[in-house]
Amino acid sequence: MTDVAKTMWANGERGFGLFSRRRWGGVICALMLIGVAMMPSPATARGAPDSFADLAEKLLPAVVNVSTTHVAEGEDQTDLNMPQFPPGSPLEELFKDFFERQHKNNGASPKRKTRSLGSGFVVDAKGLIVTNNHVIDDATEIVVSLQNGRELPAKLIGRDPKTDIALLKVDTKEPLSFVAFGDSDKARVGDWVLAIGNPFGLGGSVTAGIVSARGRDINAGPYDDFIQTDASINRGNSGGPMFNMDGQVVGVNSMIFSPTGGSVGIGFAIPSKTVQTVIKDIEAFGHARRGWLGVTIQHVSEDIAESLGMKEAKGALVQGVQAGSPAADAGLEAGDVIVAFDGKSVDEMRRLPRIVAETGIGNAVNVDFIRGGKHMTRKVKVGEMKDDVKVATGKPPTDGKKVASGHEVRALGLSVSAMTPALREKFELPDDAKGVVVTAVDPNSQAAEKGIQPGVVIEAVTQKPVVSPDDLRSGVKAAKKSGRQSVLLQVRLGDRKRFLALKIDDAKD
After folding, report:
1. 135-168 pLDDT tens trace
2. H helices within 48-155, ranges in order?
Protein backbone atom coordinates (compact mmCIF):
# COMPACT_ATOMS: atom_id res chain seq x y z
CA MET A 1 0.00 0.00 0.00
CA THR A 2 1.47 3.41 -0.99
CA ASP A 3 2.02 6.24 1.51
CA VAL A 4 -0.84 8.20 -0.09
CA ALA A 5 -3.15 5.21 0.17
CA LYS A 6 -2.13 4.59 3.78
CA THR A 7 -2.89 8.21 4.56
CA MET A 8 -6.25 8.01 2.79
CA TRP A 9 -7.12 4.83 4.71
CA ALA A 10 -6.07 6.31 8.05
CA ASN A 11 -7.90 9.58 7.60
CA GLY A 12 -11.14 8.12 6.27
CA GLU A 13 -14.11 10.44 6.50
CA ARG A 14 -12.16 12.82 8.68
CA GLY A 15 -9.63 13.64 6.02
CA PHE A 16 -11.90 13.25 2.98
CA GLY A 17 -15.41 14.03 3.99
CA LEU A 18 -16.93 13.00 0.64
CA PHE A 19 -16.00 9.31 1.08
CA SER A 20 -16.55 6.88 3.88
CA ARG A 21 -13.73 4.62 5.10
CA ARG A 22 -15.51 1.62 3.50
CA ARG A 23 -15.69 3.33 0.11
CA TRP A 24 -11.99 4.20 0.18
CA GLY A 25 -11.18 0.58 0.98
CA GLY A 26 -12.95 -0.51 -2.22
CA VAL A 27 -11.09 2.06 -4.30
CA ILE A 28 -7.72 1.02 -2.88
CA CYS A 29 -8.40 -2.67 -3.53
CA ALA A 30 -9.38 -1.89 -7.10
CA LEU A 31 -6.19 0.09 -7.64
CA MET A 32 -4.08 -2.73 -6.22
CA LEU A 33 -5.76 -5.28 -8.53
CA ILE A 34 -5.10 -3.05 -11.54
CA GLY A 35 -1.43 -2.78 -10.52
CA VAL A 36 -1.09 -6.57 -10.24
CA ALA A 37 -2.68 -7.03 -13.66
CA MET A 38 -0.23 -4.58 -15.23
CA MET A 39 2.85 -6.39 -13.80
CA PRO A 40 4.65 -8.70 -16.30
CA SER A 41 3.88 -12.36 -15.62
CA PRO A 42 6.88 -14.62 -14.93
CA ALA A 43 7.82 -17.43 -17.37
CA THR A 44 6.12 -20.66 -16.39
CA ALA A 45 7.66 -24.14 -16.65
CA ARG A 46 5.83 -27.42 -16.82
CA GLY A 47 5.49 -28.68 -13.26
CA ALA A 48 6.20 -32.16 -11.97
CA PRO A 49 3.23 -34.51 -12.12
CA ASP A 50 1.65 -35.66 -8.89
CA SER A 51 2.70 -39.16 -9.89
CA PHE A 52 4.61 -40.89 -12.69
CA ALA A 53 2.53 -44.02 -12.25
CA ASP A 54 0.24 -43.62 -15.29
CA LEU A 55 3.17 -42.85 -17.57
CA ALA A 56 5.28 -45.72 -16.21
CA GLU A 57 2.40 -48.18 -16.58
CA LYS A 58 2.04 -47.19 -20.21
CA LEU A 59 5.76 -47.43 -21.06
CA LEU A 60 7.02 -50.43 -19.07
CA PRO A 61 5.71 -53.14 -21.47
CA ALA A 62 7.96 -51.79 -24.26
CA VAL A 63 11.15 -51.93 -22.15
CA VAL A 64 13.00 -55.26 -22.20
CA ASN A 65 15.86 -57.01 -20.51
CA VAL A 66 18.75 -58.00 -22.79
CA SER A 67 20.70 -61.03 -21.59
CA THR A 68 23.89 -62.00 -23.41
CA THR A 69 26.23 -64.97 -23.27
CA HIS A 70 29.98 -64.61 -23.78
CA VAL A 71 32.73 -67.20 -24.00
CA ALA A 72 35.63 -66.31 -21.70
CA GLU A 73 39.07 -67.84 -22.16
CA GLY A 74 42.33 -67.87 -20.25
CA GLU A 75 40.91 -66.67 -16.95
CA ASP A 76 41.99 -68.03 -13.58
CA GLN A 77 39.39 -70.61 -12.60
CA THR A 78 40.76 -71.26 -9.10
CA ASP A 79 38.31 -69.03 -7.26
CA LEU A 80 35.41 -70.10 -9.49
CA ASN A 81 35.86 -73.84 -8.90
CA MET A 82 36.78 -73.83 -5.22
CA PRO A 83 34.02 -74.57 -2.68
CA GLN A 84 32.96 -71.75 -0.39
CA PHE A 85 33.85 -72.01 3.31
CA PRO A 86 33.17 -69.80 6.34
CA PRO A 87 35.76 -67.03 6.73
CA GLY A 88 38.84 -68.29 8.57
CA SER A 89 38.09 -71.98 8.00
CA PRO A 90 41.31 -74.11 7.86
CA LEU A 91 39.79 -76.00 4.94
CA GLU A 92 39.90 -72.82 2.85
CA GLU A 93 43.70 -72.78 2.62
CA LEU A 94 43.86 -76.54 2.08
CA PHE A 95 41.45 -76.49 -0.87
CA LYS A 96 43.02 -73.32 -2.27
CA ASP A 97 46.42 -75.01 -2.50
CA PHE A 98 44.83 -78.07 -4.11
CA PHE A 99 43.00 -76.08 -6.80
CA GLU A 100 46.04 -73.91 -7.52
CA ARG A 101 48.15 -77.03 -8.15
CA GLN A 102 45.40 -78.54 -10.28
CA HIS A 103 45.11 -75.35 -12.29
CA LYS A 104 48.88 -75.24 -12.83
CA ASN A 105 49.04 -78.88 -13.95
CA ASN A 106 46.14 -78.50 -16.36
CA GLY A 107 47.78 -75.58 -18.13
CA ALA A 108 45.49 -73.11 -19.90
CA SER A 109 42.09 -72.51 -18.38
CA PRO A 110 39.13 -74.07 -20.17
CA LYS A 111 36.58 -71.95 -21.93
CA ARG A 112 33.61 -70.92 -19.86
CA LYS A 113 30.39 -69.06 -20.53
CA THR A 114 29.59 -65.82 -18.77
CA ARG A 115 26.31 -63.92 -18.81
CA SER A 116 25.63 -60.22 -18.58
CA LEU A 117 22.50 -58.13 -18.40
CA GLY A 118 21.43 -54.90 -20.01
CA SER A 119 18.30 -53.14 -21.17
CA GLY A 120 16.61 -52.23 -24.43
CA PHE A 121 13.30 -51.05 -25.82
CA VAL A 122 10.95 -52.07 -28.63
CA VAL A 123 10.56 -49.50 -31.43
CA ASP A 124 8.42 -51.56 -33.79
CA ALA A 125 5.52 -53.93 -33.17
CA LYS A 126 7.25 -56.53 -35.38
CA GLY A 127 10.13 -56.88 -32.92
CA LEU A 128 12.86 -54.30 -33.59
CA ILE A 129 14.74 -53.51 -30.38
CA VAL A 130 17.30 -50.78 -29.65
CA THR A 131 20.07 -51.24 -27.09
CA ASN A 132 23.71 -50.25 -26.52
CA ASN A 133 26.48 -51.81 -28.57
CA HIS A 134 28.51 -52.51 -25.42
CA VAL A 135 25.60 -54.58 -24.07
CA ILE A 136 25.83 -57.10 -26.94
CA ASP A 137 29.48 -56.72 -27.95
CA ASP A 138 31.18 -60.11 -28.50
CA ALA A 139 27.99 -61.93 -27.46
CA THR A 140 27.55 -65.48 -28.74
CA GLU A 141 23.90 -65.57 -27.70
CA ILE A 142 21.32 -62.83 -27.09
CA VAL A 143 18.02 -63.38 -25.29
CA VAL A 144 15.36 -60.71 -24.77
CA SER A 145 12.98 -60.90 -21.80
CA LEU A 146 9.68 -59.02 -22.06
CA GLN A 147 7.88 -57.35 -19.19
CA ASN A 148 5.54 -60.34 -18.85
CA GLY A 149 8.50 -62.70 -18.39
CA ARG A 150 8.41 -64.16 -21.89
CA GLU A 151 11.88 -64.87 -23.34
CA LEU A 152 12.75 -64.61 -27.04
CA PRO A 153 16.03 -65.26 -28.86
CA ALA A 154 17.29 -62.13 -30.59
CA LYS A 155 19.23 -61.64 -33.80
CA LEU A 156 21.75 -58.83 -34.21
CA ILE A 157 20.73 -56.72 -37.21
CA GLY A 158 23.61 -54.27 -36.95
CA ARG A 159 25.66 -52.17 -34.56
CA ASP A 160 27.60 -48.94 -34.45
CA PRO A 161 30.46 -48.86 -31.92
CA LYS A 162 31.15 -45.17 -32.57
CA THR A 163 27.78 -44.13 -31.13
CA ASP A 164 27.33 -47.27 -28.98
CA ILE A 165 24.02 -48.23 -30.62
CA ALA A 166 22.86 -51.72 -31.67
CA LEU A 167 19.66 -52.93 -33.33
CA LEU A 168 18.18 -56.35 -32.52
CA LYS A 169 15.27 -58.31 -33.98
CA VAL A 170 13.04 -60.91 -32.34
CA ASP A 171 10.52 -63.07 -34.18
CA THR A 172 7.07 -63.04 -32.68
CA LYS A 173 3.61 -63.84 -33.99
CA GLU A 174 1.96 -61.40 -31.63
CA PRO A 175 2.59 -57.64 -32.04
CA LEU A 176 4.73 -56.19 -29.28
CA SER A 177 4.18 -53.03 -27.28
CA PHE A 178 6.51 -50.34 -28.58
CA VAL A 179 7.46 -46.73 -27.95
CA ALA A 180 8.03 -43.77 -30.26
CA PHE A 181 10.96 -41.41 -30.51
CA GLY A 182 10.70 -37.75 -29.57
CA ASP A 183 12.80 -34.74 -30.59
CA SER A 184 15.85 -34.67 -28.34
CA ASP A 185 16.70 -31.18 -29.60
CA LYS A 186 13.65 -29.91 -27.72
CA ALA A 187 14.76 -31.38 -24.39
CA ARG A 188 15.78 -28.44 -22.21
CA VAL A 189 17.97 -28.32 -19.15
CA GLY A 190 15.59 -28.66 -16.22
CA ASP A 191 12.96 -30.76 -18.03
CA TRP A 192 11.64 -33.83 -16.22
CA VAL A 193 12.68 -37.19 -17.67
CA LEU A 194 11.92 -40.81 -16.83
CA ALA A 195 14.52 -43.60 -17.10
CA ILE A 196 13.40 -47.22 -17.35
CA GLY A 197 15.71 -50.22 -17.34
CA ASN A 198 16.79 -53.39 -15.61
CA PRO A 199 19.36 -52.41 -12.95
CA PHE A 200 21.29 -55.30 -11.40
CA GLY A 201 18.97 -57.78 -13.14
CA LEU A 202 16.13 -57.08 -10.73
CA GLY A 203 13.50 -56.51 -13.44
CA GLY A 204 11.82 -53.43 -14.85
CA SER A 205 12.66 -50.38 -12.76
CA VAL A 206 11.65 -46.72 -13.10
CA THR A 207 13.59 -43.65 -11.96
CA ALA A 208 12.84 -39.95 -12.49
CA GLY A 209 15.04 -36.87 -12.71
CA ILE A 210 15.75 -33.86 -14.85
CA VAL A 211 17.93 -33.00 -17.81
CA SER A 212 21.08 -31.70 -16.09
CA ALA A 213 23.03 -30.60 -19.16
CA ARG A 214 23.15 -30.84 -22.95
CA GLY A 215 25.91 -31.51 -25.46
CA ARG A 216 28.27 -33.28 -23.06
CA ASP A 217 31.58 -34.45 -24.52
CA ILE A 218 33.06 -37.14 -22.27
CA ASN A 219 35.64 -38.48 -24.75
CA ALA A 220 33.71 -41.71 -25.27
CA GLY A 221 33.87 -41.39 -29.07
CA PRO A 222 34.27 -38.99 -31.98
CA TYR A 223 30.59 -38.01 -32.00
CA ASP A 224 29.95 -37.34 -28.31
CA ASP A 225 26.83 -35.22 -27.75
CA PHE A 226 25.34 -36.71 -24.58
CA ILE A 227 22.34 -35.59 -22.58
CA GLN A 228 23.25 -35.54 -18.89
CA THR A 229 20.63 -36.48 -16.30
CA ASP A 230 20.37 -37.03 -12.57
CA ALA A 231 17.81 -39.82 -13.01
CA SER A 232 19.42 -42.90 -11.43
CA ILE A 233 21.15 -45.08 -14.03
CA ASN A 234 22.68 -48.17 -12.43
CA ARG A 235 24.44 -51.27 -13.71
CA GLY A 236 22.04 -53.00 -16.11
CA ASN A 237 20.31 -49.78 -17.19
CA SER A 238 22.56 -49.52 -20.25
CA GLY A 239 20.50 -49.54 -23.42
CA GLY A 240 17.30 -48.52 -21.66
CA PRO A 241 15.21 -45.53 -22.80
CA MET A 242 14.97 -42.05 -21.33
CA PHE A 243 11.49 -40.56 -21.79
CA ASN A 244 10.08 -37.06 -21.77
CA MET A 245 6.78 -36.35 -20.06
CA ASP A 246 4.90 -37.10 -23.29
CA GLY A 247 6.16 -40.69 -23.14
CA GLN A 248 8.55 -40.24 -26.08
CA VAL A 249 12.13 -41.56 -26.16
CA VAL A 250 14.56 -38.65 -26.09
CA GLY A 251 17.66 -40.65 -25.23
CA VAL A 252 19.28 -44.05 -24.71
CA ASN A 253 20.84 -44.44 -21.26
CA SER A 254 24.45 -45.47 -21.82
CA MET A 255 26.87 -44.72 -19.00
CA ILE A 256 27.45 -43.02 -15.70
CA PHE A 257 30.20 -41.09 -14.02
CA SER A 258 30.81 -42.63 -10.62
CA PRO A 259 33.72 -43.21 -8.25
CA THR A 260 31.81 -46.09 -6.64
CA GLY A 261 30.27 -47.92 -9.59
CA GLY A 262 26.76 -46.92 -8.53
CA SER A 263 24.65 -43.95 -9.51
CA VAL A 264 25.71 -40.62 -8.00
CA GLY A 265 23.35 -38.54 -10.11
CA ILE A 266 25.57 -38.12 -13.18
CA GLY A 267 24.28 -40.24 -16.05
CA PHE A 268 24.56 -39.85 -19.80
CA ALA A 269 22.14 -40.69 -22.60
CA ILE A 270 22.62 -40.73 -26.37
CA PRO A 271 20.21 -38.20 -27.96
CA SER A 272 17.29 -39.71 -29.85
CA LYS A 273 18.20 -37.65 -32.92
CA THR A 274 21.48 -39.54 -33.20
CA VAL A 275 19.86 -42.91 -32.42
CA GLN A 276 17.18 -42.52 -35.10
CA THR A 277 19.75 -41.73 -37.78
CA VAL A 278 21.89 -44.73 -36.85
CA ILE A 279 19.10 -47.31 -36.72
CA LYS A 280 17.66 -46.03 -39.99
CA ASP A 281 21.02 -46.70 -41.66
CA ILE A 282 21.38 -50.09 -39.96
CA GLU A 283 17.96 -51.17 -41.24
CA ALA A 284 18.84 -50.12 -44.78
CA PHE A 285 22.55 -50.96 -45.02
CA GLY A 286 23.47 -53.02 -41.96
CA HIS A 287 25.77 -50.29 -40.64
CA ALA A 288 25.81 -46.56 -39.98
CA ARG A 289 26.69 -44.31 -42.92
CA ARG A 290 28.42 -41.01 -42.26
CA GLY A 291 29.58 -38.08 -44.26
CA TRP A 292 33.33 -37.78 -44.87
CA LEU A 293 35.44 -34.69 -45.52
CA GLY A 294 38.95 -36.16 -45.39
CA VAL A 295 40.85 -33.85 -43.05
CA THR A 296 42.73 -34.21 -39.79
CA ILE A 297 42.02 -31.38 -37.40
CA GLN A 298 43.05 -29.91 -34.08
CA HIS A 299 41.79 -27.43 -31.50
CA VAL A 300 42.30 -23.69 -32.12
CA SER A 301 43.93 -22.35 -28.97
CA GLU A 302 44.21 -18.71 -28.02
CA ASP A 303 47.83 -18.46 -29.14
CA ILE A 304 47.09 -20.20 -32.45
CA ALA A 305 44.20 -17.84 -33.09
CA GLU A 306 46.45 -14.87 -32.33
CA SER A 307 49.17 -16.09 -34.65
CA LEU A 308 46.64 -16.49 -37.45
CA GLY A 309 45.23 -13.03 -36.94
CA MET A 310 41.86 -14.34 -35.70
CA LYS A 311 39.84 -12.21 -33.29
CA GLU A 312 38.63 -15.23 -31.31
CA ALA A 313 39.67 -18.85 -30.83
CA LYS A 314 37.09 -20.92 -32.68
CA GLY A 315 36.81 -23.39 -35.50
CA ALA A 316 38.84 -26.45 -36.46
CA LEU A 317 42.43 -26.11 -37.64
CA VAL A 318 43.24 -28.39 -40.56
CA GLN A 319 46.39 -30.40 -39.84
CA GLY A 320 46.35 -32.34 -43.07
CA VAL A 321 44.24 -33.16 -46.12
CA GLN A 322 43.98 -36.72 -47.39
CA ALA A 323 44.77 -37.19 -51.06
CA GLY A 324 41.71 -37.91 -53.18
CA SER A 325 39.33 -36.80 -50.42
CA PRO A 326 36.42 -34.36 -50.82
CA ALA A 327 38.49 -31.76 -48.95
CA ALA A 328 41.37 -32.17 -51.40
CA ASP A 329 39.02 -31.87 -54.37
CA ALA A 330 37.59 -28.66 -52.88
CA GLY A 331 41.06 -27.14 -52.48
CA LEU A 332 41.33 -27.13 -48.69
CA GLU A 333 44.87 -26.93 -47.34
CA ALA A 334 46.73 -27.54 -44.10
CA GLY A 335 46.56 -24.39 -42.00
CA ASP A 336 42.99 -23.52 -42.99
CA VAL A 337 40.61 -22.93 -40.09
CA ILE A 338 37.12 -24.25 -40.81
CA VAL A 339 34.54 -22.02 -39.10
CA ALA A 340 31.31 -23.27 -40.73
CA PHE A 341 30.11 -26.31 -42.64
CA ASP A 342 26.84 -26.52 -44.54
CA GLY A 343 25.70 -23.29 -42.92
CA LYS A 344 26.32 -24.63 -39.39
CA SER A 345 28.80 -22.79 -37.20
CA VAL A 346 31.87 -24.69 -36.02
CA ASP A 347 32.45 -23.02 -32.66
CA GLU A 348 34.92 -25.66 -31.49
CA MET A 349 36.88 -28.47 -33.09
CA ARG A 350 34.83 -31.48 -31.96
CA ARG A 351 31.67 -30.06 -33.49
CA LEU A 352 32.99 -30.46 -37.05
CA PRO A 353 33.08 -34.30 -37.16
CA ARG A 354 29.47 -34.44 -35.91
CA ILE A 355 28.26 -31.92 -38.50
CA VAL A 356 30.07 -33.67 -41.36
CA ALA A 357 28.86 -37.10 -40.21
CA GLU A 358 25.23 -35.93 -40.21
CA THR A 359 25.46 -34.36 -43.68
CA GLY A 360 23.93 -36.33 -46.53
CA ILE A 361 26.44 -38.35 -48.54
CA GLY A 362 26.83 -36.85 -52.02
CA ASN A 363 25.48 -33.45 -50.98
CA ALA A 364 27.35 -30.40 -52.30
CA VAL A 365 27.66 -27.92 -49.42
CA ASN A 366 29.61 -24.80 -48.53
CA VAL A 367 32.62 -24.97 -46.25
CA ASP A 368 33.68 -21.64 -44.75
CA PHE A 369 37.27 -21.24 -43.62
CA ILE A 370 39.93 -18.70 -42.81
CA ARG A 371 43.18 -18.70 -44.77
CA GLY A 372 45.84 -16.06 -44.32
CA GLY A 373 43.46 -13.91 -42.33
CA LYS A 374 40.85 -13.91 -45.11
CA HIS A 375 37.42 -15.52 -44.97
CA MET A 376 36.88 -17.90 -47.89
CA THR A 377 34.14 -20.28 -49.04
CA ARG A 378 34.42 -23.39 -51.20
CA LYS A 379 31.91 -25.95 -52.36
CA VAL A 380 32.60 -29.53 -51.26
CA LYS A 381 30.86 -32.77 -52.22
CA VAL A 382 30.53 -34.89 -49.09
CA GLY A 383 31.89 -38.43 -49.36
CA GLU A 384 31.13 -41.53 -47.29
CA MET A 385 33.18 -42.45 -44.25
CA LYS A 386 34.31 -46.04 -44.66
CA ASP A 387 33.56 -47.97 -41.49
CA ASP A 388 35.23 -51.37 -41.10
CA VAL A 389 33.09 -52.46 -38.14
CA LYS A 390 30.00 -53.72 -39.96
CA VAL A 391 27.55 -56.50 -39.21
CA ALA A 392 26.09 -58.48 -42.11
CA THR A 393 22.33 -58.11 -42.46
CA GLY A 394 21.74 -60.80 -45.02
CA LYS A 395 20.32 -58.16 -47.36
CA PRO A 396 21.74 -57.60 -50.85
CA PRO A 397 23.39 -54.24 -51.54
CA THR A 398 20.75 -51.65 -52.45
CA ASP A 399 22.91 -49.93 -55.06
CA GLY A 400 23.00 -52.99 -57.33
CA LYS A 401 26.77 -53.38 -57.06
CA LYS A 402 28.35 -56.67 -56.06
CA VAL A 403 30.27 -56.81 -52.83
CA ALA A 404 34.00 -57.02 -53.59
CA SER A 405 35.24 -60.58 -53.14
CA GLY A 406 38.27 -61.55 -51.09
CA HIS A 407 37.65 -59.54 -47.94
CA GLU A 408 37.33 -62.72 -45.88
CA VAL A 409 40.25 -65.15 -46.11
CA ARG A 410 38.72 -68.03 -44.17
CA ALA A 411 41.66 -70.36 -44.77
CA LEU A 412 43.75 -68.08 -42.56
CA GLY A 413 41.00 -66.98 -40.19
CA LEU A 414 41.31 -63.35 -41.28
CA SER A 415 39.30 -60.53 -42.78
CA VAL A 416 41.30 -57.93 -44.67
CA SER A 417 40.72 -54.71 -46.56
CA ALA A 418 42.66 -52.77 -49.15
CA MET A 419 44.53 -49.78 -47.72
CA THR A 420 42.33 -46.67 -47.48
CA PRO A 421 42.80 -43.20 -45.94
CA ALA A 422 40.15 -44.07 -43.36
CA LEU A 423 42.06 -47.20 -42.29
CA ARG A 424 45.33 -45.27 -42.09
CA GLU A 425 43.65 -42.79 -39.79
CA LYS A 426 41.85 -45.42 -37.70
CA PHE A 427 44.92 -47.59 -37.04
CA GLU A 428 47.44 -44.71 -37.22
CA LEU A 429 49.34 -46.42 -40.01
CA PRO A 430 52.47 -44.68 -41.36
CA ASP A 431 52.32 -43.12 -44.81
CA ASP A 432 54.79 -45.65 -46.25
CA ALA A 433 52.74 -48.68 -45.14
CA LYS A 434 51.64 -50.72 -48.16
CA GLY A 435 49.58 -53.87 -48.39
CA VAL A 436 46.24 -54.99 -46.98
CA VAL A 437 44.99 -54.21 -43.48
CA VAL A 438 43.65 -56.88 -41.11
CA THR A 439 40.18 -55.77 -39.95
CA ALA A 440 39.06 -58.89 -38.05
CA VAL A 441 40.58 -62.11 -36.68
CA ASP A 442 38.88 -65.40 -35.84
CA PRO A 443 39.67 -65.83 -32.12
CA ASN A 444 39.97 -69.61 -32.62
CA SER A 445 42.46 -69.37 -35.50
CA GLN A 446 46.23 -69.80 -35.54
CA ALA A 447 46.48 -66.19 -36.65
CA ALA A 448 45.02 -65.13 -33.29
CA GLU A 449 47.39 -67.48 -31.45
CA LYS A 450 50.38 -65.88 -33.18
CA GLY A 451 49.31 -62.35 -32.27
CA ILE A 452 47.70 -61.15 -35.49
CA GLN A 453 45.23 -58.38 -34.64
CA PRO A 454 43.21 -55.68 -36.41
CA GLY A 455 45.54 -53.00 -37.70
CA VAL A 456 48.31 -55.38 -38.77
CA VAL A 457 49.40 -54.79 -42.38
CA ILE A 458 50.13 -57.80 -44.60
CA GLU A 459 52.71 -56.62 -47.10
CA ALA A 460 53.58 -59.86 -48.89
CA VAL A 461 52.49 -63.47 -49.27
CA THR A 462 55.04 -66.09 -50.33
CA GLN A 463 57.42 -63.16 -50.92
CA LYS A 464 55.11 -61.57 -53.47
CA PRO A 465 53.72 -58.05 -52.81
CA VAL A 466 50.11 -57.82 -51.65
CA VAL A 467 48.05 -54.86 -52.82
CA SER A 468 44.50 -56.18 -52.60
CA PRO A 469 42.61 -58.91 -50.71
CA ASP A 470 42.54 -60.93 -53.95
CA ASP A 471 46.35 -60.95 -53.97
CA LEU A 472 46.33 -62.59 -50.54
CA ARG A 473 43.77 -65.19 -51.56
CA SER A 474 45.72 -65.98 -54.72
CA GLY A 475 48.90 -66.46 -52.69
CA VAL A 476 47.12 -68.90 -50.36
CA LYS A 477 45.70 -70.86 -53.30
CA ALA A 478 49.13 -71.01 -54.97
CA ALA A 479 50.70 -72.35 -51.77
CA LYS A 480 48.00 -75.03 -51.51
CA LYS A 481 48.43 -75.98 -55.16
CA SER A 482 52.16 -76.52 -54.61
CA GLY A 483 51.34 -78.90 -51.73
CA ARG A 484 52.30 -76.58 -48.87
CA GLN A 485 50.40 -76.73 -45.60
CA SER A 486 51.48 -73.25 -44.51
CA VAL A 487 51.84 -69.90 -46.17
CA LEU A 488 54.56 -67.31 -45.47
CA LEU A 489 53.38 -63.78 -44.73
CA GLN A 490 55.38 -60.60 -44.31
CA VAL A 491 53.50 -58.50 -41.77
CA ARG A 492 53.93 -55.08 -40.23
CA LEU A 493 52.65 -53.54 -36.99
CA GLY A 494 53.70 -49.92 -36.63
CA ASP A 495 57.36 -49.76 -37.55
CA ARG A 496 58.03 -53.45 -36.83
CA LYS A 497 58.16 -55.99 -39.66
CA ARG A 498 58.49 -59.76 -39.50
CA PHE A 499 57.81 -62.99 -41.40
CA LEU A 500 55.09 -65.27 -40.13
CA ALA A 501 54.02 -68.73 -41.27
CA LEU A 502 50.33 -69.62 -40.90
CA LYS A 503 48.77 -73.01 -41.46
CA ILE A 504 46.18 -73.20 -44.21
CA ASP A 505 42.79 -74.48 -42.99
CA ASP A 506 41.49 -76.50 -45.95
CA ALA A 507 38.10 -76.92 -44.32
CA LYS A 508 37.49 -73.15 -44.33
CA ASP A 509 38.65 -72.29 -47.79
Report:
1. 998 888 999 999 888 899 999 999 998 899 999 9
2. 53-59, 78-81, 90-106, 133-136
Quick check: 270 and 286 in contact, CB under 8 A?
Answer: no
List active site positions: 134, 164, 238
Cβ contacts of residue 232 below 8 Å, gap of 6+? 195, 199, 207, 209, 263, 265, 267
Task: Output DSSP code: residue 184.
Answer: G
Between CA 231 and CA 196 the distance in angstroms is 10
At 244, the amino acid letter reads N
94 Cβ contact list (under 8 Å, min separation 6): none
- 223, 162 Cβ separation under 8 angstroms: yes
Say how far apart CA 260 and CA 243 lie, in whole Å: 26
pLDDT under 50 in the chain at which residues?
1-43, 75-80, 82, 84-89, 91, 388-406
> Which regions of 133-273 does DSSP assign to beta strands (E)?
141-145, 151-160, 165-170, 192-197, 205-216, 226-229, 241-243, 249-256, 267-271
Helical packing angle, 3-15 and 21-38, nearest 10°: 160
